[in-house]
Amino acid sequence: MMERSYEKYFREGRLPHIWCPGCGNGLAMKAIVMAIEEKGLPQDETVIVSGIGCSSRASGYMDFDTLHTAHGRAIPFATGIKLANPRLHVIVITGDGDCTAIGGNHFIHGCRRNVDLTVIMFNNEIYGMTGGQGSPTTPLDRLTTTAPYGTSVRPFDACHIAMAAGATYVGRSTAYHVRHLAKLIGEGIDNKGFSFIEAYVQCPTAYGRKNRLGSGADMMKHMRDSAVMLSAWEKLPADKRQGKFPIGCFLKREVEDFNTSYEELVDRAGGVR
Amino acid sequence: MSVFTIREERCKGCGICVAFCPKNVLEVDALSKVHAVRPEDCIGCGQCELLCPDFAIFVDKMDREAAK
């Protein structure tokens, strides 16, 4: 067998990873290395920063300069790295709880500052590692260990938050659409500014089992059947949108990134770079 | 005809490759490891490799000449 070219981006000795059988995090991680390979980012000049949670374990399996940081604080750490050494490509891996709950403020202010980061949020709609507590992205009427009679609060749409807060590239894809996800991540890497990509992944252990959604494969079939490309979604009448969700690039805009505006500020103040 | 490489130490037997194989080539055994039980039926679509979250299964499509 020819060794697959993306394998060189993994820390061979750390595999197999600890994610449950059927978990989609491995697919999102594969999409990230596929995008990195396609864009030809050098391993020594790429930094992977992650927070805490199932998703954030990914940094330990990837052979780059990696940083596993405090809960919810991946974006501030990554901002520091990008400011200290703007030459580096900084990729942030975070989860739905890490990004929208514990690190919610860091997330919106990261978007507002428009730091040149690529943030990939693995959204499994649950706190998997700690035992299946409801997260801000758990849909309505789902069972979790903290909502035994079903969730009664509307979920966040992280892509809407990112768009409203000022991110310059926003997209969503799923673990089933690996190549599409890799393409979006690649576009995020190309974008000079804050890029936010939501990777919808399945959690068969903590979320699927409790809500009778079946195995990891069943949950991926659901993604295949209910994810609609944005161009088709826009033509769908409202009644046909029930139970479906759009994927694709939602927003792309040109705004000066934080490093550039900061350097201008340094020049204006007569400082030395 | 395709050649399968299965890295058993990585396989967790989740069955994603089995579920998405259009030709029913794969099966998970009692020890939760996947095997290509009908490799002659494989059309080399690569879905199993693409959708494996554990980087455990690889499929190389052989061209007809090499298979002979």
User: Could you say which overall geometry of chain A the principal axes of the C-alpha atoms support?
Assistant: globular
When the domains of chain A are counted, the total is 1
Strand count, sense and barrel status of the largest sheet of chain B are:
2 strands, antiparallel
Sequence of strands across the biggest β-sheet of chain B: 1-4
What is the fold named in CATH at topology level of chain A? Answer: Rossmann fold
CATH topology of chain B: Alpha-Beta Plaits
Helix content of chain B: 10-25%
Mean pLDDT of chain A: 93
Q: Name the helix and strand elements of chain B from N-terminus to C-terminus, one letter apiece.
A: EHEEHEH
How large is the share of residues in beta strands of chain B? 15-25%
Q: What order do the SSEs of chain A take from the amino end to the carboxyl end, as H and E?
A: HEHEHEHHEEEHEHEHHEHEH
The most extensive interface between chains reads: A-B, 29 and 22 residues
Helix percent band of chain A: 25-40%
Quaternary assembly: heterodimer
